[in-house]
Design brief:
Elements (H helix, E strand, L loop, with lengths): L3 E2 L8 E5 L1 H14 L3 E5 L3 E4 L3 E3 L3 E5 L6 E4 L13 E6 L29 E3 L2 E4 L6 E6 L6 E10 L3 E6 L2 E9 L2 E5 L9 E8 L4 E5 L5 E3 L2 E3 L5 E3 L1
Parallel strand pairs: 1-3, 2-4, 3-6, 4-7, 5-8, 6-9, 7-10, 8-11, 9-12, 10-12, 11-13, 12-14, 13-15, 14-16, 15-17, 16-18, 16-19, 17-20
Length: about 230
Amino acid sequence: PKAVYADRLGARGDGTTDDTAALQAAIDRVQETVGQGIVFVPPGRYRLTDTLNVWPSIRLIGYGPSRPVFLLGPHTPGYQDPDHERQLVFFAGSRPRPAAPGEPAVPARPPDANPGTFYSALVNVDLEIGDGNAGAVGVRGTYAQHCFLAHVEIRAGSGLAGIHDTGNLLEDVTILGGRYGLWTRTPSPGWPLTAVDVRFEGQREAAVRETAAGLTLIRPRFRRIPAAIIIN
């Protein structure tokens, strides 16, 4: 009963309306009212033009007869530079408060999730990156215990990576296209990253590029890629 429903805060999911602000408002509402909890997202195609910041201990969960899709349209401004990645979904370590008079301005980007970031998750929501977005990344989440991506398909297409830097657990995740499927370093608590039933297809360079991730792969599938795993 304390969950927030994205459509009740104006998210349309019609594939053309910019739903970024409405979805962010739903995430913010959870943080402002109960601190940690759930945003339920009904079926639809939710067009994004900027990053969704998911504050700690908030889970975005899709429901209904079909998975909702977060869509980055072709050639979305700000997503073209592969040397300066920009995410569709960013799991943050905290929500910065507005700067008080006389204080330095708050950074434009919130801090990364960290070893103290628990319970954040993305469940049963697909992501899609349109053409002409070479700097786009589906998800970044350098979080810790009880955080995960589950039942997600990331259609990374022209983007840089489906996932760039993550932690803890991936389960039932499919990544199609992208320069890399999963590109990650050591998870923030220094623990291994476990990926269960993760499928990679059509990446341009490698399904996985990793640095000291302690990666455990259980039933992975690789298809139509030049390299399965590159270890830096």
